[in-house]
Amino acid sequence: MKFYTIEVNHSMWEVPERYNSIQPLGYDTHGQLCAATDKQSQESVVIKRLARPFDSLISCVNTFREICLLKHIKHDTIIHFHDLFTPQKTLSEFSSVYLVYKSLTPPSASLDQILSTQITDDHLQFLAYALFRALVYLHSMELVLLDLAPRHIFVNESVELQIQNLASARKVHLYGPSDKMSGYVGTRWYRAPEMILNIEGFNSKVDVWSVGCILYKLATGKELFPGNDHLDQLTKIFDVLGTPEKALIEKCSIAAQKYLSDLPLKEKRDLSEYLQPSNVSPGFVAFLERILVMDPSERISAAEALRDPYLEEYHDPDDEPLAEPFDDSFEQWKDLGKDEWKEKIFEEIRNFVA
After folding, report:
1. Which of 85, 158, 170, 210 is 20 to 30 A from 264 in CA distance terms?
2. CA 277/CA 274 separation, integer angstroms
3. What are the C-alpha distances in Å from 308 to residues 131, 142, 234, 243, 311?
4. What is the pLDDT of residue 28?
5. What would the pLDDT profile of 68-107 be if each residue is shown by its tens digit?
6. Number of helices followed by number of strands (H, E) in the chain
7. What is the per-residue pLDDT for 86?
8. Which residue, among 209, 97, 227, has the nearest Cα to 144 in the 3D structure?
9. pLDDT for 186
């Protein structure tokens, strides 16, 4: 395999000759992205160069996990793994990792780049269905994205949708606590309140909340909860949904309980107040009310969202696939050091078959 060097935003990339027309796209959680064309298949692709994949033990595990997830996931609205390479030929030289995804048929844009004037209620319905259909697949393998935001979701002129960031995804027990997560995971404005308040760990409902915030932005062109920091984020949420009830406060960490007990009481407001003057249907308002619920135990799941009357037109149980079980036994490899993880990643690249 022959490589060539190209400068991308003041950094030097080494890529196989099969990829050309390389253009910077920006960044995701763990790396820099470029659009490109695969001359062999004539397909549009996205190339991601991981940032400092071996800097720490955590970086090594994150790199290995992302590769394993991409190899496992097969869904039409989630990125398709296309290639995996490094320009280094030996383990002693090994220093960079590139991931390649199949892209949507261009032109495509992230949801962040779509103007609210382009979004009709029909579009909202279809995009909501596509997002929840993807979440049902991911949640069926006990995977939670944790960082679902408009900049990570792309759509083309045919309104085909693709989730393009799995870097923060983790496998967790869907209905049990997890002490491994951080309230600072995720793009702040789309971060569920339980992530900030550490309400008995996180589960799949955090992704449902994120979709609700995304749909609101698509409908109005505005953010619903644009917090300046995590405390301001909570204030913005409480302004709309009211302060948490006692039963929910008791599920929070001790520090969060103390903070909440000092807050003035605020009543929940009707979301329809915040959706004016957008032309959304009453069905959309009712749908959003079921999604943006403070207590995750009362919030609908992705599967329940698909059965909501708002998505009745698209809901088809025969076309809403579940995932094969995902083997995350590597998470238990506690005795491995950085060099051993690096060797395993190198082996994954050497043995990769598209």
Report:
1. 210
2. 8
3. 14, 22, 28, 27, 6
4. 82
5. 999 999 999 999 999 999 999 999 999 999 999 998 887 7
6. 10, 12
7. 97
8. 209
9. 63
Q: How far is residue 102's CA from residue 70's CA, in Å, rounded to a whole number?
A: 11
Write the CB contacts of 93 (distance below 8 Å, at least 6 apart in sequence): none
**Catalytic option among 28, 83, 147, 308:** 147
Q: Please report the pLDDT score of residue 118 as a whole number.
A: 63
Q: Which of 243, 299, 246, 308 is nearest to 269 (CA)?
A: 243
Between CA 324 and CA 74 the distance in angstroms is 9
From residue 117, alpha-carbon distances to 95, 113, 124, 211, 220 in Å are: 45, 12, 12, 19, 9
Chain segment 213-249, per-residue pLDDT in tens: 999 999 998 999 999 998 999 999 999 999 999 989 9
Per-residue tokens: 147 = 């960082």
Structure tokens at 235: 């204030």
> What is the Cα 211 distance to its own chain's centre?
10
Taking a C-beta distance cutoff of 8 angstroms, is the pair 97, 87 a contact?
A: no
Q: 167 with 48: CB under 8 angstroms? A: no
Residue 316 annotated among the catalytic residues of the structure: no
What stretches in the chain show pLDDT beneath 50? Answer: 174-183
What's the chain's length in residues?
A: 354
Which DSSP string do the residues of 97-113 spell out, in sequence order? Answer: -EEEEEPPSSSEEEGGG
CA gap 222, 147 in Å, rounded: 19
CA distances (Å), 255 to each of 196, 202, 228, 245, in order? Answer: 11, 17, 20, 16
| Token couple for 21 | 């027309």
- How many other C-beta atoms lie within 10 A of the C-beta of residue 105? 12
What is the Cα–Cα distance from 17 to 27, expressed in whole angstroms?
A: 23
